[in-house]
């Protein structure tokens, strides 16, 4: 279960960012921001022309003592960042991938909406619900 | 600020609006957001709104104070009446109609609700004389309204809005008047509505207007002032709609069910955009259409999400009806559901229930929108929500399906991805067949060792391998997969067999000459490395020369020539062809026959045999290994190992060796027959001759090794026996080599795992290394 989920646009500004312990939001915002550097590094290193699923999923970007940050980039350079608690060791790579897949799917649904202008903050309730389902159930 | 004079009505109206915008309850400042919403609800273009904002001084101040607000409102009224926006006109214009706003504010909803109720009850809400003209149309409008009504059974809970429960018959009329009056004025102000159907949307404003008593107070003036009939009609429609809604909702359990009239209306609307009822409305067209409803983009976006069932960016007729219905409901004040109600699901909607709807339908088209709604039924939401069919089971089912499929995809993708993605697993994967350089090297070493120790002949052989070792390693690695022999073993075998032939040739020579050939053969296979060394040290150069010389000749023949036409009668093995594996060719006795047969066998067996022998020898009997080849033929294994070692190295080398072995074979016909027919073949007699000399030296060593092996009839005469023996030896060599191969692979895996673990540790120690 993620502690924070963020969607970053191609120009590296956030389209959607949501964290569970709302009091520590700034910290997660900062973490996501710094993780963008890692993402850039990873995607610039991949020189392959074809972007298959493997490349979309960037894997663990970097771990800190409190949490781990995973990254995923779409073909249009929209980045998804998931921050999970380090104590949650049971999360497997598979699960993170499935979370990213769901994020990607719901993001494309948002994009398909003609009323959504790319670049606007994502306000879709469906997207919100999917993200909430993936977040840690904070008490 | 410019002075502003407001009529009483205006004053009241404006203050009310201000209060509605005064979310912070400061009584002084209207929140920008609310104000802007209100302005937008005035259905003015954005630039006009901006202009108004600027004119009233809000931009200057940064907020909407009361005076700014009032000025803005007046400007809105101006704009809506089509007059130029100018501050001077603010006070000069008399009888300026009140600004109209499409969407009633939430705060106003209750009031509207009240109005609703009142209207229904009284029917003569407005002081003004009702405009009757539209009665007819109103009825039509009424029909349209059902859509909304269905949506709100809830009304009970909310306020008066609950009007739905009231008997339809009365309300419509009441509404008619009501609406007409209210809406008429408003509508009038509106920019002309595209005839068709959206008028209801425009009219939406009236909702609030109609409902609220206060509104009514305000609206009359505007109404009186200008309204054309048409507009009133349209507004009437909206009223009708609400009436209908109310009427309908009372009877329905399902708030979201689309009535026939509604559906017909929707279908007509659909036709205006897309004549083909089975076609799709593209997203952009739908966007324009629904934008006319003046709903906030956010809500429209949500409606789209709900209604675009297949997420294709286009609306089918069913989806369109669902979307339209949702818009109507929203306009009437119902909250949007989180999930698409079952009744709105595409598959559930039945089309064309035209019975009894034609008229209303047609009228609807003229009139305005079913949607128009009035307003704000105050949030009858709660009931609505409760009534929603929970189902969306379909939705859920759909979701599960999609999730399942996606998950399955996920699984498959993951599966495919996980393995490679995980370096550990990748590394742990079985090592490719081809021989790794390390293995090759080992083989070579063994061959060398065996070769050098055993015989000189092997040295040339060794020489070849070593010189070509680099190439061979690569080549072997390349060659292995390609070796026809079969698996890695064979490739390794071939490798060894490469050397083997040479050594075998050498051995053969020796054997021919005496016993050396055997030794030669024995020597060569086991430790490839030794051989090369030996060869280098020895007549390697000469041998190499000869080998090289022989190679071209042999090379051409290699491919297919089994029997190199070595001069040596005894065992001149045909050839190298055999592919370096095959070098073994028959044991000394076999001679041509051997060679002919062995090549076939050699390729595979010798390799195996050689390699395993080599290893075994290398481990156990380093000396023996070396000597084996030299011990002429005995070493089934050795020669084979040697051969395989050689073959592993390279085809090229093999060729060379073939040549050499052929030569040596020629020479070494006397060499130990058994094992290395290949060697014999490989080596040319010439090469073998010098080797022969060496062979005897190594033959001793080989002999010992050979001794362990089943005795191989050395008599040249016993071809069959020799062949059989060679077969046996080859098989043994094969198994040995196979074992060796597996062991080496296991070692490789272990090493790789160690490497992985080390890398992981490194990563852990330097987590930010890549930052």
UniProtKB/TrEMBL annotation, chain A:
Keywords: ER-Golgi transport, Transport. One of its GO terms (biological process) is endoplasmic reticulum to Golgi vesicle-mediated transport. Belongs to the TRAPP small subunits family. Sedlin subfamily. The keyword Transcription does not apply. It is found in: Cytoplasm, Perinuclear region. Gene3D superfamilies: 3.30.450.70. This is Trafficking protein particle complex subunit 2-like protein. GO terms for cellular component: perinuclear region of cytoplasm. It comes from Phoxinus phoxinus (Eurasian minnow). Pfam families: Sedlin_N. InterPro entries: Longin-like_dom_sf (IPR011012), Sedlin (IPR006722), TRAPPC2L (IPR044760).
Automatic annotation (TrEMBL), chain B:
One of its GO terms (molecular function) is calcium ion binding. PROSITE patterns: EF_HAND_1 (PS00018), EF_HAND_2 (PS50222), EH (PS50031). SMART domains: EH. Residues 155-165, 375-384, 489-516 have a biased composition (Polar residues). GO terms for biological process: endocytosis; endosomal transport. InterPro entries: EF-hand-dom_pair, EF_Hand_1_Ca_BS, EF_hand_dom, EH_dom. Residues 447-456, 648-658, 683-694 have a biased composition (Basic and acidic residues). Residues 150-193, 359-384, 447-541, 553-694 are annotated as: Disordered. Transmembrane segments: none annotated. One of its GO terms (cellular component) is plasma membrane. Residues 10-97, 262-346 form the EH domain. Residues 730-761 form a coiled coil. It comes from the Eukaryota. This is RALBP1 associated Eps domain containing 1. It comes from Phoxinus phoxinus.
């Amino acid at each position: 279960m993620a502690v924070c989920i963020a969607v970053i646009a191609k120009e590296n500004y956030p389209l959607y960012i949501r964290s569970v312990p709302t009091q520590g939001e700034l910290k997660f915002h900062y973490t996501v921001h710094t993780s963008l550097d890692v993402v850039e590094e990873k995607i610039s290193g991949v020189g392959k022309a074809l972007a298959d699923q493997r490349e979309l999923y960037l894997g663990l970007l970097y771990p800190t003592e409190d949490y781990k940050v995973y990254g995923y980039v779409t073909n249009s350079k929209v980045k998804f960042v998931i921050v999970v608690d380090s104590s949650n060791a049971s999360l497997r790579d598979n699960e993170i991938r499935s979370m990213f897949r769901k994020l990607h799917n719901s993001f494309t649904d948002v994009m398909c909406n003609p009323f959504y202008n790319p670049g606007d903050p994502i306000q879709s309730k469906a997207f919100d619900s999917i993200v909430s389902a993936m977040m840690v159930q904070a008490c | 600020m410019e002075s502003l004079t407001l009529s009483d009505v205006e004053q009241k109206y404006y203050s009310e609006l201000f209060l509605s915008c005064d979310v912070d309850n400061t009584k002084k400042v209207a929140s920008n957001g609310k104000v802007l919403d209100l302005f937008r609800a005035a259905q003015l273009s954005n630039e006009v709104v901006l202009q108004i904002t600027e004119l009233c001084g809000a931009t200057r101040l940064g907020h909407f104070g009361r005076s700014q607000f009032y000025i803005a409102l007046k400007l809105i009224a101006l704009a809506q009446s089509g007059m130029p926006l100018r501050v001077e006109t603010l006070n000069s214009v008399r009888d300026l109609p009140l600004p109209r706003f499409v969407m009633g504010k939430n705060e106003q909803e209750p009031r509207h609700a009240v109005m609703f109720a009142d209207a229904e009850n009284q029917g003569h809400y407005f002081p003004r004389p009702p405009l009757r003209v539209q009665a007819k149309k109103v009825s039509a409008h009424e029909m349209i309204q059902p859509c909304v009504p269905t949506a709100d059974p809830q009304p009970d809970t909310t306020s008066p809005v609950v009007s739905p429960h009231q008997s339809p018959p009365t309300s419509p009329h009441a509404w008619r008047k009501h609406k007409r009056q209210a809406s008429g004025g408003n509508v009038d102000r509106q920019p002309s509505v595209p005839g068709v159907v959206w008028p209801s949307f425009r009219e939406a404003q009236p909702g609030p207007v109609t409902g609220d008593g206060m509104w009514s107070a305000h609206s009359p003036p505007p109404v009186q002032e200008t309204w054309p009939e048409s507009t009133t009609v349209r507004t009437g429609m909206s009223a009708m709609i609400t009436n209908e809604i109310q009427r309908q909702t009372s009877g329905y359990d399902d708030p979201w069910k689309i009535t026939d009239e509604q559906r017909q209306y929707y279908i007509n609307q659909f036709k205006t955009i897309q004549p083909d009822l089975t076609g799709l409305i593209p997203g952009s067209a739908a966007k324009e259409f629904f934008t006319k409803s003046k709903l906030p983009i956010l809500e429209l976006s949500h409606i789209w999400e709900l209604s675009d069932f297949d997420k294709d960016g286009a609306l089918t007729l069913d989806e369109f009806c669902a979307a339209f219905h949702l818009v109507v409901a929203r306009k009437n004040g119902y909250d949007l559901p989180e999930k698409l109600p079952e009744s709105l699901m595409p598959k559930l909607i039945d089309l064309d229930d035209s019975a009894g709807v034609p008229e209303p339908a047609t009228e609807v088209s003229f009139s305005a929108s079913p949607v128009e709604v009035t307003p704000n039924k105050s949030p009858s939401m709660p009931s609505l929500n409760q009534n929603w069919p929970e189902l969306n089971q379909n939705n859920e089912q759909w979701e599960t399906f999609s999730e399942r499929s996606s998950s399955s995809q996920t699984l498959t993708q993951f599966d495919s991805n996980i393995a490679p993605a995980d370096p550990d697993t990748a590394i742990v994967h079985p090592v490719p067949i081809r021989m790794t350089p390390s293995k090759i090297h080992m083989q070579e070493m063994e061959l060398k060792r065996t070769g050098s120790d055993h015989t000189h002949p092997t040295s040339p052989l060794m020489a070849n391998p070593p010189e070509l070792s680099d190439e061979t390693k690569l080549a072997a690695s390349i060659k292995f997969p390609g070796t026809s022999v079969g698996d890695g073993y064979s490739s390794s075998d071939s490798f060894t067999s490469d050397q083997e032939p040479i050594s075998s040739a050498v051995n053969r020579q020796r054997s021919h000459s005496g016993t050396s050939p055997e030794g030669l053969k024995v020597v060569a296979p086991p430790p490839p490395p030794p051989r090369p060394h030996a060869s280098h040290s020895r007549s390697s150069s000469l041998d190499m020369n000869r080998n090289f010389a022989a190679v071209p000749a042999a090379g051409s023949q290699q491919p297919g020539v089994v029997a190199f036409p070595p001069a040596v009668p005894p065992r001149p093995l045909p050839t190298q062809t055999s592919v370096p594996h095959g070098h073994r060719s028959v044991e000394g006795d076999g001679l041509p026959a051997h060679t002919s047969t062995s090549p076939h066998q050699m390729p595979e067996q010798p390799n195996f045999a050689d390699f395993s022998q080599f290893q075994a020898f290398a481990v156990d009997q380093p000396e023996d290994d070396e000597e084996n080849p030299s011990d002429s033929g005995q070493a089934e294994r050795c020669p084979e190992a040697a051969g395989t070692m050689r073959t592993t190295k390279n085809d090229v080398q093999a060729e060379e060796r073939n040549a050499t072995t052929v030569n040596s074979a020629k020479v070494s016909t006397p060499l130990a027959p058994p094992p290395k027919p290949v060697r014999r073949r490989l080596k040319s007699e010439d090469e073998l001759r010098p080797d022969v000399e060496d062979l005897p030296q190594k033959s001793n060593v080989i002999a010992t090794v050979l001794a362990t092996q089943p005795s191989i009839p050395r008599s040249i005469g016993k071809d069959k026996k020799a062949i059989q023996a060679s077969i046996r030896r080859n098989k043994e060599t094969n198994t040995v080599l196979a074992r060796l191969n597996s062991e080496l692979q296991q070692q490789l895996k272990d090493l790789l795992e160690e490497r992985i673990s080390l890398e992981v540790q490194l990563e852990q120690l330097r987590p930010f290394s890549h930052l």
